[in-house]
Amino acid sequence: MVKEGIPFISIPLATALVFAFFQIWAGVIIFVGLALFMAYFFRDPRRIIPTEADIVVSAADGKITRIEDRENGKFVSVFLSPVDVHINRAPIAGKVIKVELFQGKKAPATNNEASQTNERNAMTIEGEKMTVVCTQIVGIVARRIVCWRKAGETVEIGEKYGLIKFGSRTDLLMPKSIEVAVKVGDRVVGGETIIGRLRN
After folding, report:
1. What's the CATH code, domain 55-198?
2. What pTM does this model have?
3. Direct distance between the N- and C-terminal alpha carbons of the chain, in angstroms, rounded to an integer
4. Looking at residue 165, what is its pLDDT?
């Protein structure tokens, strides 16, 4: 479990103890259940990172909802439900050259306009052969973006770099030379699922 989940677990547990003191067992059950859900939400499972060369892995767990060919590259969007693992992972290895936080709305993350209008954090990673922009986007339920990396730092492919609290979306913008390896509707696993391969 990531450390950001500790307050979300300890507060319901403390509340459950108060209810237990007054023998209000319904309250105990509700808040213990809430604490267990929070422990599940902030889980940090081990991932097996692919070793294949020239690949881009998924930055998040979830469902592929959009794949587009854009003027500035290949675009793939992953929607995370509240029960998905919400830790974000670096899609490629390289140097973080830019981290930009944009203030905005907390509209549904499935909305096509969310990439431009919702609160989001865009991290640009410059690898040996490609540059990828990974954007964390909040939704109606998600209230906060956490990014542990800063410009100038380096990341390894599949390395944990942040999380989005409670339901959200993660977008990847990749070079046009990437051959996308997933399709809309696919379930992907952060750090494990190969999103695309660099064409020779």
Report:
1. 2.70.70.10
2. 0.83
3. 39
4. 75
Lookup result for tokens 């998924």? 58
Amino acid type, 71: E
d(CA 123, CA 146) in angstroms, rounded, equals 12
d(CA 115, CA 108): 11
Token pair in block for residue 167:
């339901």
DSSP 78-122: EEE-TTS--EEE-SS-EEEEEEEEE--B---TTSTTHHHHB-EEE
pLDDT band at 58 (very low <50, low <70, confident <90, very high): very high
Catalytic residue list contains 168: yes
User: What confidence score (pLDDT) does residue 116 get?
Assistant: 67
**Tokens of residue 82, six digits:** 């509240």
State the catalytic residue, choosing from 10, 58, 168, 177: 168
Domain ranges of the chain: 3-41, 55-198
pLDDT at 109: 56
